[in-house]
């Protein structure tokens, strides 16, 4: 039996989901993969905060609000990073990789859009990997799929719904005409979809971070950030939604990145904006918290993936998958599989 020691940075919706899955799948991990995931330390902002809700079976003595405690918590094989924002998340992860040579699994798309390339280089220098499936489209396996497609396909365009909260709100505004925007947003937060500060969700900035990650993966580069128009859903009123419904149309918040050739030069053109679609459009039927990503390639045409774009278990489960993939690859490398 291999024991893998890991730390979790951030213990909200996603971080607690990782702990719960590790508990729920403990026997399967042992029996099928001969591995035990040991959580050595968990970082939050204020470990002494009164009334903190913790998952059943969690040892509260693992909580700390000092990164020094995490760094000193013995050998660490993997860091699960599920904090909010680029900093101090990136500095913490970087320090852990530098000190422990650990693998990284992150859900933090703001951090990864900005520092992903540097982080992958740093981890690579230590012979380790970075898993970031959870950064884009929650439980929809778009990163793995693009990584695989890229082995042979030339990707020309990636387009889709990348934020679960906005799709949930737009769906709810149409199906519950009397319900207020505030009540719907509060429901999205209670379900663990929306960020604690939902500005990035509704302004389109969350989808922007995800789109930059997809651009980098699909085309090897991100477009210049200031050149990407980002329009949120704030201007979509109940009246506009009702008007669209009367025309058998629906609002979708669509992020798109495309490789185009202009004057002989290849260029990435990206945008994030609400779009009115009719029943013939591929995104018309994507409802509630679901995300969808349509990938255009030379050999395949268009391949569309759809599924839950946010929430505790869709997100945390793909992080545990990233981790387990690394464990299996390391076993193969060491010949102990
Ligand atoms: P939460 O707000 O529920 O949890 C965030 C956690 O991070 C909290 O435990 C918080 O501490 C901790 N934290 C935040 N800032 C710091 C800091 N400076 N130092 C130490 N700890 C800190 O967020 P989620 O779990 O929903 O999301 C986590 C990450 O995953 C985000 O980057 C989010 O964008 C991403 N994500 C979320 C998804 C979702 O469906 N919720 C889906 C995909 C990605 P404390 O508990 O003390 O407040
Ligand atoms: N707040 C994000 C969303 C979480 O609603 O899509 C998933 O990244």
TrEMBL record:
L-homoserine binds at residue 195. One of its GO terms (molecular function) is homoserine dehydrogenase activity. NCBIfam families: PRK06349.1. InterPro entries: Asp/hSer_DH_NAD-bd, HDH_cat, HDH_CS, HDH_short, NAD(P)-bd_dom_sf. The keyword NADP applies. The lineage of its organism: Eukaryota, Discoba, Euglenozoa, Kinetoplastea, Metakinetoplastina. Pathway: Amino-acid biosynthesis; L-threonine biosynthesis; L-threonine from L-aspartate: step 3/5; Amino-acid biosynthesis; L-methionine biosynthesis via de novo pathway; L-homoserine from L-aspartate: step 3/3. The keyword Endoplasmic reticulum does not apply. It comes from Strigomonas culicis. It comes from the Eukaryota. This is Homoserine dehydrogenase. NADP(+) binds at residues 10-15. It catalyses: L-homoserine + NADP(+) = L-aspartate 4-semialdehyde + NADPH + H(+). One of its GO terms (biological process) is methionine biosynthetic process. Residues 141-323 form the Homoserine dehydrogenase catalytic domain. Keywords: Amino-acid biosynthesis, Methionine biosynthesis, NADP, Oxidoreductase, Threonine biosynthesis. Its EC number is 1.1.1.3. NADPH binds at residue 109.
């Amino acid at each position: 039996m291999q024991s893998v020691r890991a730390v979790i940075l951030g213990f909200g919706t996603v971080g607690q989901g990782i702990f719960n899955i590790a508990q729920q799948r403990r026997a399967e991990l042992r029996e099928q993969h001969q591995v035990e995931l040991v959580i050595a330390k968990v970082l939050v902002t204020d470990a002494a905060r009164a009334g903190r809700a913790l998952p059943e079976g969690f040892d509260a003595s693992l909580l700390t609000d000092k990164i020094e405690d995490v760094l000193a918590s013995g050998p660490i094989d993997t860091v699960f990073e599920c904090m909010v924002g680029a900093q101090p998340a990136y500095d913490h992860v970087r320090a852990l990789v530098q000190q422990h040579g650990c693998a990284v699994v992150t859900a933090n798309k703001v951090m990864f859009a900005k520092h992903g390339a540097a982080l992958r280089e740093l981890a690579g220098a230590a012979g380790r990997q970075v898993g970031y499936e959870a950064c884009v489209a929650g439980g929809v396996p778009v990163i793995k799929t693009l990584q695989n497609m890229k082995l042979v396909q030339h990707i020309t365009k990636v387009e889709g719904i990348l934020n679960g909260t906005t799709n949930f709100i737009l769906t709810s505004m149409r199906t519950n005409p009397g319900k207020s925007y505030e009540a719907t947003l509060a429901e999205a937060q209670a379900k663990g979809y929306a960020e604690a500060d939902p500005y990035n969700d509704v302004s389109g900035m969350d989808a922007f971070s995800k789109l930059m990650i997809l651009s980098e993966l699909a085309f090897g580069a991100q477009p210049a950030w200031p050149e990407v128009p980002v329009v949120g859903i704030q201007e979509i009123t109940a009246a506009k939604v009702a008007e669209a419904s009367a025309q058998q149309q629906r609002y979708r918040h669509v992020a798109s990145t495309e490789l185009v050739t202009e004057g002989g030069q290849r260029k990435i053109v990206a945008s994030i904006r609400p779009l009115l679609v009719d029943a013939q459009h591929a995104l018309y039927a994507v409802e509630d918290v679901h995300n969808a990503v349509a990938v255009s390639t030379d050999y395949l045409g268009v391949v569309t993936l759809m599924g839950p774009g946010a929430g505790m278990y869709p997100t945390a489960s793909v992080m545990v998958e990233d981790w387990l993939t690394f464990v299996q690859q390391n076993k193969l490398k060491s010949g102990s599989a």
